[in-house]
Specification:
The protein has 447 residues and is mainly alpha-helical. Helices cover 63% and strands 6% of the residues. It contains 18 helices and 5 strands. The strands form 2 sheets. It has a 3-stranded mixed β-sheet, with helices on one face. The longest helix is centred in the N-terminal third of the chain and has 49 residues. The structure holds zinc ion. The site of zinc ion has 4 residues, from helix 11.
Amino acid sequence: MTPTRHTLIRAVACVAGVVLLLAAASILAQQRDNAMNTLAEQYVRLVLAVGQHDTDYVDAYYGPPAWRTEAETAKAPLSAIASRAAALAEAMAAAAPGESADELVRLRHQYLARQLESLRARVSMLSGATLRFDEESKALYDAVAPVHTEAEFSMILADLESKLPGTGRLADRFDAFRGRFVIPRPRLDAVIKAAIDGCRTRTLQHIVLPPNESFSVEYVTGKSWSGYNWYQGNYRSLIQVNTDLPIYVDRAIDLACHEEYPGHHVYNVLLERNLLRDHGWTEFSVYPLFSPQSLIAEGTANYGIDVAFPRAERLAFEQQVLFPAAGLDPSTAEQYYAVLALVDRLSYAGNEAARRYINGDIDATQAADWLERYGLYSRPRAEQRVRFIDQYRSYVINYNLGKDMVANYIESRGGSAADPNRRWTEFARLISSPRLPSALTVRSVPQ
Ligand SMILES: [Zn+2]
């Protein structure tokens, strides 16, 4: 045997060793994935079981229909669901991947474990536990909204005094001013469709979606919300618009971007394609509404409005497309949006009303009074909002705190308004991966 042949044999042996190691690593990874998939399936079944006790809980489900039927037939009592969830939490803890595991694998495990923790909190609430507002938002959404005082809102209201015509209560003056910007009912569908078209066109320039993705729009009444996206699976959504109260022209882009492109519809489409179909991660076939997933969903949907329509582009689109479609005078758009930008800084007043109301410090009438005074809601809108708080409780933080957390996260990664392409890239990345609210940094608000 010559030295050359020895070297060759050693090299072959070495390569064979590496191949064997890689094969072993691949088998281990496959085993770990299989173990996680088994746990994920148990989680999905638990979410469906909770849905039997809470009609708002399962926001979307597009896994095997048999699992839903089983949950409906079994109608497991809450105590049994709590026991199964506790056992699953133990199994999840035992299945935690090591620090050296792939980032996506670690994110998956952390996300599923936290979603399960939130499910257990919801089951405990359904079983009669009462949580204070901040405890509830922490348990369900993995976040706590900052506290703001009346004095902070009063300063913003003082700014508005000179911007709104007339005398009397500011809420009434804002209502009268805003009344000039209502979309006439016969024009509503055309305006909403034009807004969706604008949001969709902008989104498709930056995010590749499956060619068969689609949506439909319905107009409904008797709801506590103003708009809702019902994801049906297979890349389809149904958007419902509530016409109980007049719809202002600014709601067109807000609804279209928030509910559809690049908001809820796109978020669900990307989760279904990237995580459920491409990775086979079953947990993404279900969306429990009262969970950390909702802070990411609502936060990205709200931030997505600014991503799709930066201020100057939005104003131009309003003036050129939406105001004419609504039969409104485009020359008034600039003043309207200047006032709305100020009023938007009052959004955290809604959290304060909800926090005091849920904590039992004020009653429903006082909560509506607070919304009128510090949030500039009209009385009917304030009452609709209190009904929303009755139904969804601390969920309200997901909209404004969620948006601020998402904005902070994306902008800290270089996705600022000054770099729109980077902002789209970071936005798409966030809505394509399982990330928890506590992994995003909170910025101090209001500004
Ligand atoms: Zn939403």
